[in-house]
Amino acid sequence: MAFLNMFSRDKDEPTAMTADDRLSLVLSYQRSDIDEKKIKQFRVRLIELCDDFGYDVVGQVEVIPQSKDRKTIINATIPVKLKEPI
Amino acid sequence: MNRSVSITVTSGKGGVGKSTTVASLGLGLAQLGYRVCLVDTDIGLRKLDLMLGLENRIVYDLVDVIEGVSTIRQSLVRHKEYNDLALLPAAQTRYKEEVSPSQVQAIVDQLRSEFDYILIDSPAGIEGGFRNAIAAADRAILVVNPEIPSVRDSDRVIGLLESANIQRIDLIVNRVQPGMVRDGDMLSVERVQSHLAINLLGVVPEDKRIIRSSNTGEPVILDSKSLAGKAFSNISRRLIGEDVPFMELESSTIITRIKRLFHIA
């Protein structure tokens, strides 16, 4: 198995699993002029916002733009827990 | 018919079947008794003359009209069989930059008195040639292939058409392969339409007979054995306002029926 993994190790993760998801992603990037830099800034601000509201971010923050009916919807997944009282 | 309608057929991406669509829809509308003019705005890379088998009849072209070398009437090439179908060819040895949107608009405005439908074949891209092609459009038809690069370009084109105040934009999904859609290897027509969110005017299946038709100069709509030809015929009827149901895209032969029975097609 390790031998087989050697060949796939360097492969990038696909940006989406199906052609439809990929199209949705591609269109939302185009329609809202979003790029990776903007998404990274978005993520940082969301973490700051959680902190302001008393939450600790406990996992990977995901910001995924999706396209539906010529509108872009930005989905954010933020795993959090309430801050421990000091 | 009270008023002439000008329709630009466009796509953004090249090679999706714009000229094939214009040639077939032009013939389809002429078969239905309308006076139709096809305007090729792909200056430097004209194709419509070949699609219609009229390449040997061209004397003057669009640029000659603009430069005053010929009149519109002198430059129109009538179809051999359908006299109500005319072509205003593009120049083959000139450049798109030599024509401006207002000049194309002036020509189309002159054609309105003589024709019920003016179909404008747009070049690929979104630069000057595209601007020329949409300058005089009352409506637009977007030809899209069910693949991501084509849909993405079309989405961009919809935005440009909307900014140009073209309110009515219809969609033709061309070169659909039902087998690939079934296997999940091609986007479905429904998904393409859902993403672009414009009215679906027609669905044209991939058809090898189209290659034959462009080589012989007989638009595929004249080929009674072609499913794509039948699809274009239906689209022509929808264009004039008829309510035509969407057809089954796969020809159902005994072999395909048996294959489907055993889930191998």
From TrEMBL, chain A:
Entry protein name: Septum formation topological specificity factor MinE
Source organism (scientific name): Thermoactinomyces mirandus
UniProtKB/TrEMBL annotation, chain B:
One Gene Ontology cellular component: cytoplasmic side of plasma membrane
Pfam families, alphabetized: ParA (PF10609)
Matching InterPro entries: MinD, MinD_FleN, P-loop_NTPase, ParA/MinD_ATPase, YlxH/NBP35
Coiled-coil regions, chain positions: none
Molecular function terms, GO-annotated: ATP binding; ATP hydrolysis activity
Function description: ATPase required for the correct placement of the division site. Cell division inhibitors MinC and MinD act in concert to form an inhibitor capable of blocking formation of the polar Z ring septums. Rapidly oscillates between the poles of the cell to destabilize FtsZ filaments that have formed before they mature into polar Z rings.
This protein's name: Septum site-determining protein MinD
Native source species: Thermoactinomyces mirandus
